[in-house]
Structure formats: C-alpha cells, structure tokens
Design goal:
Blueprint (H helix, E strand, L loop, with lengths): L2 H8 L5 E2 L10 E3 L2 E2 L2 E2 L4 H6 L4 E4 L10 E3 L3 H15 L4 E5 L4 H12 L5 E3 L9 H6 L8 E5 L7 H9 L3 E4 L7 H4 L2 H8 L1 H9 L2 E5 L3 H6 L4 E5 L4 E6 L2 E6 L2 E8 L4 H13 L4 H10 L8 E5 L2 E6 L5 H13 L5 E6 L8 H14 L4 E5 L12 E3 L2 H7 L9 E5 L14
Parallel strand pairs: 1-2, 2-5, 5-6, 7-9, 7-10, 8-9, 10-11, 11-12, 17-21, 18-19, 18-21, 19-20
Antiparallel strand pairs: 3-4, 13-14, 14-15, 16-17
Length: 419
C-alpha cells in the first residue's frame, strides 16, 4: 500500500495506536516491535478491540481481515508522520536540549494555548517513535504544534527534524547528559545543534537566549528571536522562581533558579506569537510541575523537593546549588546514580559527591552502584535502594527540607513511601 493510500485511511479518524490496552475505536494500530515484545502478535487483539486497521510486517499475520502488510512497521509510522506533516499548514515549534526540555515544552504549551489550539508532545515521547506519534495527534483544528525532541547519539535530532520539519526551534541548554552516547560535551553541543542546522538550511527561526554564549556561537547566521535577562528579569527564588517582564511580576510554581531560563523561553515565545501579557502571566503562574519534576511535597513538618525524573551532572549541580541557597535550617540531600555517562561515570559521580559535600548539608546520602564505588567524607553511601531502605527504617526528618534527585531508573520517588 502506498503512503498516500494509508494516509487516506488515517484521515478517517486521525487516530493511531500502538498499545492494545488502550485501543480507540476507529484507530490504526501499528504493530511495533521491541527487545521484549512483538506487536504483530497483538494485531488481532487490536482489531477486536475496535481498531479499524492494523499495520504489520510479518507475513504469518497477513490473513487477518483489515491488516496492512508493510516491510517495516516503524519506518511506515515515520513515513506516515512525515507525509502528515507535509499536509499541515501550521507552525511547528521544536525544542531540544540537555536539561529542562519537558518543563519548557509544558510552559510553552500553557502560554500558547491561551490564544491558539495547540498540540504538544505528551510527557516525554520525544524519540524516533514519540515524535511521529505526536505529529499524528495533530488534528485539522490544531493551530500550532509543539514537538519535544530527545537524543542520546549524533544525527538523531537531524533525523527527527526531517520528520517534524519545524519552522521554529529552541535549544534549552547544552549540558553533560548522555555522555555515553555523545562521547563528550563537545558531542552534546554538536548533536543538539543539529536543530539549529536544520533551521539554518530551511530559513526557519530560532529562539535564542543570548545570556548563553554557547547558544550565541552555535546559532550564527540563523533567523532568530532573542531574549535575555535584561528583557525578562530574574527577581528571586523563595522558594519559587519570580521574574519580571514589561514591568509585570510573574511568580511561578517552579523551584530552582535553573527554571528561570525555561520560564524566559516560554515568555519570549508567547510574546512573539502575540499572546496577551496577562494571559502569559496567568499561564505561567498556574502551571504546576508533575511527574517527579521539581515537585514540592509537604509531609507534616517535612518539606520534600522531589526531582527524581532524571539526572545528569549539569542538572544535579544546578539542583544542589539551588537547594543550598534556600533559607531552611535543616537540610538533607539524597542523590541517586546518574545513568548513561559511559567511561566518565566514576569521575562525574565523584565530582558531584564532592560538590554536594562542600555545601555542608546536614546529611548527605548517596544511593546506587556508581556512587558506591567512590569515596566521600561525611556521606552515607548505599549500593542500592534496598540497602538504603533496610538501613533507614526509621528516618527521622521532622522540621527538615529534603532534596531527592536521581536518574529515572533509580525510581527514588519510592523514598516517599518510607515516611
């Protein structure tokens, strides 16, 4: 079947599903494969659950009614998304970066949705599967699309750009994330800048934070909309980030000065698209972080800053610095391993532990295999969450502020169940 024919079927519902547990009536089921699953085996279940068609790539299932046999299901999904993008006559904003992508995307969506019908990446579905799926959620009524792009190797952002074909782009920052795949911070800069290169060659527009010298250097010869601290002013963190734009104070529900740049980007993009200032203010002030991202959780006299969605050396250092600036008297830090650092893992974990130790928190707790291989004075170190749990059955953290941060695979939000 040609992609044009498949697209005609798709436009009957504008629904695409990949999980038989959540099939929507009239959708097209794409039988994706993974290391531990084969969607082809569930094509019949998808059809029985209400899918109109199932796209498969194994011949043994081709005799099912309403199946479409292709060479490769994933590549077909990507081609369909690309074809759909070519039909859309709306602005697409893509963003990437080492830290803050998802929070920034949510803020941008909150601001722009005050004026436009928007479609944005759900959660962090930002890879070679998530980007096509996000594009295919864009309905005919959508006025602006907001696409988050993630990568852990070179050429991935370039590949995603060729699918999403953004008119606008933003890179939140360049930091020490996924060093195992990128090899070095220079590799990170090169990989993320693939978004800039796409915009440069397609005459797109980049939103540039000119307080970031790396951004300025990498974005030369690109049409740009710039913003900086002289236009969008940082006021304070106490504990939430407060900024000022056009003499109007905006107090967010986001902790950490590192969120200032994320808020600034959302303000700059909202201003560019002529969202009224009162609506920009309302959107940012009412946005609340979820999914373990810089959440403040109060448990009696214990205040928890839960930032356990992800971690890398750059975000870890920023979180520690911010926590040290809070005026609370009793501070405890629990850090979990940072993943995907490759050969630099031991060095990076040692540096973060030393930095945390230098800030003189009341207690420093390190959890994970990587942290257990280093030496730090005045720190409690556990090789696993289970070891920590066993040794800390009666955590006494009354009248305490607690920072919890680690990579997603550490699932440190489980600590909350110990209180």
């Amino acid at each position: 079947m040609k992609i044009e024919q498949l697209y005609n079927l798709y436009t009957q519902s504008y629904l695409v599903d990949t999980d038989t547990r959540n099939i929507r009536k009239g959708s097209i089921f794409f039988a994706l494969k993974g290391a531990n699953f084969n969607g082809n085996k569930f094509a019949k279940d998808a059809l029985n659950s209400g899918a109109s068609y199932a796209v498969i790539d194994e011949e043994e299932y081709k005799d099912l009614q309403n199946v479409i046999l292709v060479k490769n299901v994933l590549e077909t999904l990507q081609e369909l998304a690309k074809y759909h993008r070519d039909q859309l006559k709306i602005p697409i904003i893509s963003l990437t970066g080492s830290n803050g992508k998802t929070t920034t995307k949510e803020l941008i969506n909150a601001v722009l949705s005050k004026k436009f019908k928007t479609t944005a990446t759900s959660g962090n579905l930002n890879n070679h599967i998530g980007v096509p799926l996000t594009l295919l959620t864009i309905q005919p009524t959508t006025e602006i699309g907001i696409i988050e792009m993630g990568a852990n190797h070179l050429n991935e952002i370039d590949f995603l750009c060729k699918i999403a074909k953004p008119n606008f782009g933003l890179i939140t920052n360049f930091g020490k994330a996924h060093l195992e795949g990128f090899g070095s911070i220079e590799g990170v800069v090169k990989a993320k800048s693939e978004l800039y290169e796409f915009l440069r060659t397609t005459n797109g527009i980049a939103f540039i934070n000119t307080d970031d010298s790396k951004q300025v250097k990498q974005s030369k010869n690109i049409n740009s909309v710039v913003f900086n601290n002289s236009e969008i002013k940082f006021i304070e963190v106490n504990p939430f980030v407060k900024v000022q734009f056009n003499n109007i104070d905006i107090e967010s529900k986001l902790i950490g000065k590192y969120n200032f740049n994320n808020i600034s980007a959302a303000i700059a993009i909202g201003n560019y698209f002529k969202v009224p200032l009162k609506d920009i203010k309302d959107a940012i002030e009412n946005y609340e972080p979820t999914n373990n991202r810089s959440q403040i959780i109060n448990k009696g006299s214990l205040k928890v800053i839960l930032d356990a969605y992800n971690a890398n050396p750059s975000s870890m250092k920023a979180a520690l610095e911010n926590f040290s600036l809070l005026k609370d008297t009793q501070k405890v830090v629990i850090l979990g391993d940072m993943f995907e650092l490759g050969e630099t893992s031991s060095k990076e974990h040692q540096q973060i532990a030393d930095y945390a130790n230098s800030l003189n928190f009341n207690k420093l707790i390190l959890i994970g295999k990587a942290f257990s291989t280093i030496t730090v004075k005045n720190a409690l170190i556990y090789s696993s969450f289970e070891d920590f749990k066993t040794s800390n059955k009666d955590l006494n953290l009354k009248n305490t502020s607690l920072l919890i941060k680690g990579s997603r695979g550490m699932a440190l939000e489980r600590i909350l169940n110990l209180f």
